[in-house]
Amino acid sequence: MAATIRDVAALAGVSPSTVSRTCRNSSSISQKTQERVRQAMAQLGYEPPAVMPVQPETSQRTLGIILPPSPGVSFENPFFLEVLQGITQLCNEKKVLTALITGKDDAELLDSVQSHSRSRLVHAWIVLFSQEEDPVVDYLCQEGLDYVQIGQPSSHPNETVAVDNDNIAAGQEAARYLWELGHRRLAFAGSNPRHRFSCARLAGIRLYLQEQGQDLPAQYTAQVDVEEPEAVATLEHVLFPPAGPRPTAVVASDEMHAVLVRQICQEKGLRIPADLSVISFNNSIVSTIVSPKLTSIDVNARQLGIEAALQAIKHLENPDLMPSRTLVPFQLVPRESCGAPGTAD
Q1: How distant, in Å, are the alpha carbons of 27, 63, 67, 196, 229 from that of 79?
Q2: Extended beta strands in 85-146, E state
Q3: Residues 22-44: what's their mean pLDDT?
Q4: Closest among 252, 334, 229 to 77, alpha carbons compared
Q5: Other CB atoms within 10 Å distance of the CB of residue 339
Q6: Taking the model in full, what pTM does it have?
Q7: Comparison of pLDDT for 121 and 303, the residue scoring more
Q8: What pLDDT digit, counting tens, does each position of 103-149 carry?
Q9: Would you tell me which CATH number, out of the four given (3.40.50.1820, 1.10.3720.10, 2.40.240.20, 3.40.50.2300), belongs to the domain 167-298?
Q10: What distance in Å separates the CA atoms of residue 92 and residue 309, rounded to the nearest whole number?
Q11: Most buried of 43, 170, 264, 335 (most Cβ within 10 A)?
């Protein structure tokens, strides 16, 4: 089996990104380290890919910002807009350029990332999402490219610089708030299980309920992306289960799900919060312009962006820094969408 960039990194005792930069004759790598890396390459018979041309580096740095694969919903989600504001704020202060990378699906997104990588116009990457079986993160890691991931890494955790919230604790906080209001029939409206943040928030809800001696029934759990054709039917099935009483409160994994829940309630005649309490995440402007205003877990999206950009620049300037995980705190913001459970079932 042919040696990989990670094999070279392990033998030389450096990071894969250091090997990648050595292959490009980067001036950011000391001569001593370059010699050690080249010795490891020779020992293993490693041949750098042809897509890694030796070119002089410029003083202008560029961060590639990778949005999740989507036909368009990512641009409609205010969470990503706030993260982008944080990234560009920090990059403007540091005189660093940004490039936005999008794609309608995994294949198109990966192709765009590869094209930008071959052009050497992007020096480090920020991945705005974490999902299972992600070919983009696999490519960045395998090529030894510098990247920061917002969210809990689903692969390569020991090689990924991550910026995240404690989403399990955030899920627990949402469940605790509703429990203390008197709710005992909680439901969850979240994203496809492929998305790590949503699964972590669901895990936190389950953990809190288990501590209270209660489970979260499957009939009260919906895991579907809002743009999927079956999203409305799936959420209706949870809000109005075919057997047993309906839930008195819903935790939505993000505001897009909360808005869809609100739409269904309006169409079906459920009042928020008299008949159903709703708590969401992100606390963007959406939470304050809907009626009633949404109780929300503020994940400090802009700060997530600032920290991600800060880490990306720091690792660019110090290529042998160990991968790290930065946790950004969250806060619960009570508003009008939650109250004590009503009497109607």
Answers
A1: 37, 19, 11, 15, 22
A2: 97-101, 124-127
A3: 75
A4: 252
A5: 18
A6: 0.85
A7: 303
A8: 999 999 999 999 998 888 899 999 999 998 899 999 998 888 899 99
A9: 3.40.50.2300
A10: 11
A11: 170
